[in-house]
Amino acid sequence: MKVRYTYRVRVSRASVRLLEAEWDACRWVWNQCVELDSKSRRASVARPQNGDLDRLLTAWRAEHEWLRACSQNAQQQTIRDFCQARADARAIRKRGGRRGDRRFRSRRRALPTLNFTRSGPFRLRDGRLLLPHGIVLRPVWSRELPSDPSSVRIFRDALGRWHASFVVEREADPLPATGRAVGVDWGVKAVAATTDQQFDLPHTPHRDRAQRALARRQRQMARRRPAPGRAASKGYKAAKRRAAREHAQLKARRQDEARKWAVRLVREFDQIAVEDFKPLFMFGGTLAARAASARTAAARRALEDAAAKHGRELMVVPAAGTTQTCSSCGARAKHHLTLSDRTFECDSCGFVADRDMNAARNVAARAGFDPAGADRVRQGVSLAA
Ligand SMILES: [Zn+2]
User: Fold this and answer.
1) Ion ligand 1 residues within 5 Å by Cβ
2) How far is the CA of 126 from the centre of ligand 1 (A)?
3) What confidence tens digit (pLDDT) does each residue in 320-345 have?
4) What does residue 59 show for φ and ψ, rounded to 5 degrees?
5) Which of 8, 30, 31, 93 has the largest count of CB atoms under 10 Å?
6) How remote is the CA of residue 307 from the centroid of ligand 1, in Å?
7) How many Å lie between the centroid of ligand 1 and the Cα of residue 239?
8) Which one, of 82, 80, 58, 53, lies nearest residue 68 by Cα?
9) Can you tell me the mean pLDDT for 362-384?
10) Residue 36 pLDDT
11) Distances in Å between the alpha carbon of 17 and those of 20, 23, 27, 277?
């Protein structure tokens, strides 16, 4: 299976200049794509496709020497990226989400990102990464590449650090069967609620603190934002740097937390059913809702990766009605559960369970799994009754 291995890279000042020149060329190609795309939208004609844009690139390169001086491969990949981003946006809109057309990449705001494929050609030699036109990068090899990479993305983050992200083929690493199944519901009270409570992924207060710190920096940035056409102040730049640092830390911790949880889950269960989760409200809603959504997205991604890596069966079931249905008798609740209703009570059979636990059991049942611990819950309830 294909996975990404990402490394920090050390870049000499000369190579930074060359990478930035490549980025300027790719940015120009991207912006041409955006312009052509919106032109055809306004004229109500078919949008240019990958092949059309590739042919245009040949013409642009024949016309402009500075474009010819940069990597054709990176420019072709930019067109591919553009078409992919456009298709993704369309898919989001189809699901009822908000995602506009791709925007221009401005020199000041957009962060460099360059993609090279094997035919680029990029090469690895003596621990160095060699790109076209004599660009030499030194990745910090924090772990070994499992195989020869098929492509690499070079990008700079908001803190000015350069990274290389390789696409490699990795062998699956199957874990011994345990005969256990689990249902996962992306919860309200917890990031993930499962049919076995000890595997829940709770919301953690310290993360909310980090989230608030980030929000504070972002407000500071907004206050100090320069007027159009004016140069940014020192204070604005400082706030921007600090916001970027807070964000990078928050993201790294979120990923780390999600990965550890996912590995714990796949070690214990062969069959994992998850509620389908579409992080649509990431593009709107309150700060808390966006933060919760980002955490859930990270958890789901980590679970998909871990399940694929360790050969576990992962089933994604539609989310509709999992909260409103009784996981004991299957009856639909007559009244609508609001977010503040923490307990599910069945009007038909009298089953009582934690709201998220009830939903997680429904998720497992919909996947056709018999979740471990479900019997224990039922027993607990009948004993209590
Ligand atoms: Zn019931």
Assistant:
1) 326, 328-329, 331, 346, 348-349, 351
2) 65
3) 778 888 888 888 877 777 767 788 88
4) -65, -45
5) 30
6) 32
7) 54
8) 58
9) 59
10) 94
11) 5, 10, 15, 42
> Which residue ranges make up each domain of the chain?
2-169, 181-202+265-382
pLDDT one-digit tens code per residue, 99-120:
777 889 988 888 999 999 986 6
- Ligand 1: distance of its center to the CA of 344 in Å? 10
CB 182 within 8 A of CB 267: no
Work out whether strand 271-275 and strand 181-186 pair parallel, antiparallel, or are unpaired: parallel
CB 282 within 8 A of CB 290: yes
pLDDT at 374 over 60: no
CA of 333 to the centre of ligand 1 (A): 8
Which tens digits make up the pLDDT trace of 209-233?
A: 777 888 888 899 889 988 888 888 8
- Gap from CA of 100 to ligand 1 centroid (Å): 43
Ligand 1 centre distance from Cα of residue 292 (Å): 30
How much of the chain, in percent, has pLDDT values that exceed 70?
90
CA–centroid distance, 75 to ligand 1, in Å, is 59
Specify the pairing of strand 313-317 against strand 2-11: unpaired
The model's pTM is 0.72
